[in-house]
Amino acid sequence: MVGNREDALDITQTVFLKAYENLSSFDRRHKFFSWVYRIMINETLNHLSKARRMEPLDESYQSGARGPDEECSQNRLRESIQAALLELSPDYRQVIVLRHFGQLSYEEMSEALEVPEKTVKSRLHTARQLLGGIFSKHGIVLT
Amino acid sequence: MNDNDRELERLMNDQLDGTATPEESERLSRALESREDVRSEYRKLGGVFAALSRIEMEEPPASLKQGVLRAIRAIEADAGARQSWLDSILALVRGRAGFRYAYSFATGAALGVLAFALLSGNLATRPGADSRAFTGTMAPLTGTHAFQHIGSRDFTLRDGRVLTETLAGPDGFLVRILADAPIGSELVLSFDPADCSPVGVRQQTTGNEVMLGMGRVSVRMQRLGQSQYLLYLARRGPAGSPLRIAIHSPDGYVQGELETGALRSGS
Fold it and tell me: What does the pLDDT look like over B172-212, one tens digit per residue?
């Protein structure tokens, strides 16, 4: 989500601490991990909005800097895919991350994002379509 | 994009997501057979799924867990300084939902480990069962208006003593233990997990080890000093069995039962 390992570690620690400090406010009608994901999403978005104000995107994550030869290597390919993900807006990136990496169901995503399931699906479809466009733009071909 | 295209887009996503029904898969197959534009879109979408599957999830480093646990301990210490131990257990009783999660959250295990403190002395106990009515050396617990006294016990040891009191709460009961036992002693409170479940345990001072597990709470004395503990147990059913307490010391063993009248009556 944030494109930086150290930031991801900091955010993860903050998320767990915030969850721990606010356990008493957890509503048992909801799923626990959806609640944690909600905190994670808020914390990540806060981080991204701060980063946007303060720092340019790390050059290593700007996919335009890579040529076609580099993308032959699996590592480079993975980096390109990650860079493409970072080109998505946070709203679209988070549904991709929750669904494809977090393996959350639509229902769980709906709880975590506090939007209806229909919105989750629609956002996910659009995100995948946008990602396909970004892959094409950067010459990433996968079958 | 018309309604039919939107429907096909949904079908393609559901198919690749593994959420399409057999009927939907069949409908998509027919569209793929008859339309090149659908095949092209499906290949492109399949490429996105394939690309995303190439990214592996990174395992968090061990230092992350350590960092979280250190920070949680710092929060606990800070909270302890601001809040009395009694307030803290009552807060747990009020906000029960969080406690169970706090354990699995902080430790990643079903058991929670806290610290306890006990007064030393060369405890020597009489072997066998021993419990008698508490005679009043345990000061009344203040701030527990919502709780009703059930009973007290005084477990006399050769060089120490363990006093207990049980109080009925809104949906469970509070067990208070005042202990004075030598280092190396272990106090085990056991109960039927089908009848009640531990919601929270708090110690007045730190230094000893508390293990909270299925059907039992144990305290291992690791430092000198008198200390007091509060355990809140939630009722899980109308019927219940009494709590059993066992005190193992370097010189002997004492056991007995604690009254849980409210638990048994289901009130």
Answer: 888 888 888 888 888 899 888 778 877 777 776 667 777 77
Contact A23 B101 (CB under 8 A): yes
CB contacts under 8 A, A 18-57 vs B, are 19-21, 23-28, 32
Decide if B67 touches A, using CB distance below 8 A. Answer: yes
SS3 B98: helix
Same domain, B34 and B97: no
Specify if B203 maps to a domain: yes
What is the CATH code for A5-60+67-137?
1.10.10.10
Residues B115 and B209 both lie in one domain: yes
ipTM for the predicted complex comes to 0.71
What single-letter DSSP state applies at residue A73?
S
Would B186 be classed as within a structural domain?
Answer: yes
Residue showing tokens 């197959």: B29
Domain that holds residue B219: 85-265
Residues B94 and B183 in one domain: yes
CA separation (Å) from B196 to B171, B176, B267? 10, 16, 14
Same domain, B113 and B164: yes
Instruction: Phi first, then psi: give them for residue A21, nearest 5 degrees.
Output: -70, -25
Q: How far apart, in Å, are the Cα atoms of B43 and each of B34, B40, B195?
A: 15, 5, 57
Domain at B195, CATH number: 2.60.40.1170
In a mutational test of the A interface, the residue from B6, B44, B171 whose CB has the highest number of chain A CBs within 10 Å is: B44
Q: Is A73 on the interface with B (CB under 8 A)?
A: no
Q: What is the pLDDT of residue A14?
A: 81
- pLDDT for A131 beyond 70: yes
Question: Residue A40 pLDDT > 70, yes or no?
Answer: yes
